[in-house]
Amino acid sequence: MRDAELTRQKILEISADEIHKKGFVATSLSCILVRCEVSKGALYHHFKNKMELGYAVFEEIYTPMFLELWQPAVEVNDPIEGLCDFFTAMYTNSSCDEIVCGCPLNNLCQEMSGVDEGFRLRILNMQQQLNQLIAINLQRVANQLRDDIDFSQVAYFIVSTFHGSSSLSKSSKNKDLFEKVIKELCNYIRNLKSH
Amino acid sequence: MRDAELTRQKILEISADEIHKKGFVATSLSCILVRCEVSKGALYHHFKNKMELGYAVFEEIYTPMFLELWQPAVEVNDPIEGLCDFFTAMYTNSSCDEIVCGCPLNNLCQEMSGVDEGFRLRILNMQQQLNQLIAINLQRVANQLRDDIDFSQVAYFIVSTFHGSSSLSKSSKNKDLFEKVIKELCNYIRNLKSH
DNA sequence: TTACATACCGACCACGCGGTATGTAAATAC
DNA sequence: GTATTTACATACCGCGTGGTCGGTATGTAA
């Protein structure tokens, strides 16, 4: 056949890119169709409507992407240094555009949580997964850390700051502020160690 | 006359509320007109277009509101405790809806920075003002603080975390996560003191 | 009273959007 | 070889939006 799965995948990936760059609402189907070089009929053959396309992007693109990104950072021997390396690599390796574009999870959280319940629950689930991932791996090395630490609280704190910093760099359109905040975040994280 | 200034002010305030709750793009003029009980002609008499209305809301409502909110928190004798009290008061006094709704500055930053240059520059300016406000007041009590502190970096860090936490609470639709992050933020802030 | 500017009204418009209905060619089943 | 289903393509529709424009009521100054 004309490889339906490939068509579907192409639509998903380009949609993911568009949604990441423009947000969900501002992303127009016609724009996706042009980039994919498929017709509206093709899109509506694979997805019930725009919302379902959005959900599919979240589940099939963003979610695995996210876990693949964070897991190695935190499942390393020393998660403290793992996280610091991860964040540091982010502003040294990522282009300015990528950083200014922001994290898809945070972007969608800001845009869609209050508008659509389906998105909200998916986002919430992802955030909880991410939080557990970090909290568990910090607990794993609890003996090296200060003894007054609430692991879940610290995990949420780290993610909050990270998301806040990418939000901050949107208005300055460069990664200087992102770098500043991330550096301070590394200070904070390293300070979790007992000394 | 029919008090043009009052009409203008009413449009500004209701627009500010709508933009805060729905975002700028999702805010429809017709909705504003209904709530204001004025005609489209009245609105376009006072504002050139939707964008200019948005700018006016930012400059005449959000900016002063923001400064009045943060200044007392940080211009107090002990800005460390001032900030902690400020944040703590935020999750004890604010309703769940208010917190979930998020900070107008952060919301607009996320939504409009990448789309419209006029918004971006106004937001950037506000962020820099806020950063200076915090940094200067921390420097004011530098003798009580650790001596390895980059004041600007710390100020950006604090605001980032604050904004990140309000973003976080959008998906959970309650203020528990907000509270968690803010508590950890207070731990961090108090830890700036030398001991 | 005249002349004019300000403040406001409401009908109308073009546009782009998400979504649908109908048609058709390719692949599969029988 | 034929029937049926799958995988698209295309033309079309209704709706809500920001924005315009001719007209009108209200105030002010000559």
UniProtKB/TrEMBL annotation, chains A, B:
DNA-binding region ranges: 28-47
Transcription regulation is among the record's keywords: yes
InterPro entries: DNA-bd_HTH_TetR-type_CS (IPR023772), Homeodomain-like_sf (IPR009057), HTH_TetR (IPR001647), Tet_transcr_reg_TetR-rel_C_sf (IPR036271), TetR_C (IPR011075)
Alphabetic keyword roster: DNA-binding, Transcription, Transcription regulation
GO molecular function: DNA binding
Short name of one Pfam family: TetR_N
Transmembrane segments: none
Domain of life: Bacteria
Name of the protein: TetR/AcrR family transcriptional regulator
Organism of this sequence: Colwellia hornerae
